[in-house]
Design brief:
Helix content is about 45%, strand content about 15%. By secondary structure, it is of the alpha/beta class.
C-alpha cells in the first residue's frame, strides 16, 4: 500500500468512526430510497418516505425547543412512530427514554422522573397511565397529535447535532435490587451492537427483523435500529 492509499484509508476510517445512528440510516435512504423500511399491517414505508417523516419530526421537535441532550420519555407499544421518534432524536442529538408499560404506576413514575424529560409521548393505549404521572412536562398522544405535529413542522430541518458518544436510548434494568435503573446507550454502542449482530448472524440488507419484543427492551430497539442502519425491513 503506497502512502497516498494509506492516507485515504486512515481518513475513511476516521470518518466512519464519527458516524451516528441517523447518518447510517440516512445513507441507506440515499442509496436504497425505494426499499421497504417498515411494514406494519397494511402500512408499507420506504426508506425515502421514512427519512422524510423523520426529518419533519426532527424539525417539529426542534421548534418545540428540543435539541442535543433533551430527553423524550416514550410510552408506547411497537409501531412505526416509535422508530421515527428514535431516529428524529438521533438526528437532533436528543435521547429517548423507552418506558416499560408493564411496570406499576409507582415504578413508571420513578423511571420517568429519573430522566427528567422535556417531552412525554404516549400512545392512546397508555395515555391514561401517562396522564396519571405527576410531572410537569408537555405531553403528546400519538393517535391524537402526531400527524398534526409532522404536518405543521417548519420547512427548515435542523442539521445533525449528535456526536457518536452522545446517549441516544435509555433502557431500564429489571429492578431486582430495588427500583429500575436507567442505562444510557450511545450512538457508538448501538452501531457496535449492530456490527456484532451482522458478523455473528451474517445479517444483510436482504434479511428483515420482526419486532415482536417490546421496544422498551434491547431485544427489539437494538435490532430495529440495526436493521434500519443496514437497509433491512422491520
Amino acid at each position: 500500500m503506497n502512502e497516498a492509499t494509506a492516507d485515504a484509508t486512515r481518513a475513511a476510517i476516521g470518518r466512519a468512526g464519527g458516524l451516528t445512528v441517523y447518518e447510517l440510516f440516512a445513507a441507506q435512504a440515499r442509496d436504497r430510497p425505494s426499499a421497504t423500511a417498515i411494514l406494519q399491517g397494511d402500512i408499507a414505508i420506504t426508506y425515502a418516505e421514512l427519512d422524510g417523516r423523520v426529518r419533519r419530526l426532527a424539525a417539529a421537535l426542534a421548534a418545540r425547543g428540543l435539541g442535543r441532550g433533551s430527553v423524550i420519555a416514550l410510552l408506547s407499544e411497537n409501531r412505526h412512530e416509535y422508530a421515527e421518534i428514535q431516529l428524529a432524536a438521533a438526528r437532533l442529538g436528543a435521547v429517548v427514554a423507552c418506558q416499560n408499560w408493564r411496570l406499576s404506576r409507582t415504578e413508571l413514575a420513578h423511571c420517568v422522573a429519573l430522566v427528567g424529560p422535556a417531552l412525554l409521548i404516549a400512545s392512546q393505549r397508555f395515555a391514561e397511565a401517562a396522564a396519571a404521572l405527576d410531572i410537569d412536562v408537555p405531553r403528546l398522544v400519538i393517535e391524537r397529535d402526531y400527524a398534526e405535529l409532522i404536518a405543521a413542522a417548519p420547512d427548515e430541518v435542523p442539521p445533525v447535532a449528535a456526536e457518536p458518544e452522545d446517549p441516544l436510548i435509555v433502557l431500564y434494568t429489571s429492578g431486582t435490587t430495588g427500583l429500575p435503573k436507567g442505562a444510557a446507550i450511545s450512538h457508538r454502542a448501538e452501531i457496535a451492537r449492530n456490527a456484532v449482530l451482522r458478523m455473528d448472524m451474517r445479517a444483510t440488507e436482504a434479511d428483515g427483523f420482526v419486532a415482536w419484543a417490546p421496544m422498551f427492551h434491547m431485544g427489539s430497539t437494538d435490532q430495529v435500529l440495526g436493521a434500519l442502519m443496514s437497509g433491512s425491513t422491520v
